[in-house]
Amino acid sequence: PSRLYVVAGAAGGTGGGALADLGYLSQCVAAACQRTLQSRAILFLPDGFLTDGAEASLAPNSSALLTELH
Question: Model's pTM, two decimal places?
Answer without folding.
Answer: 0.69
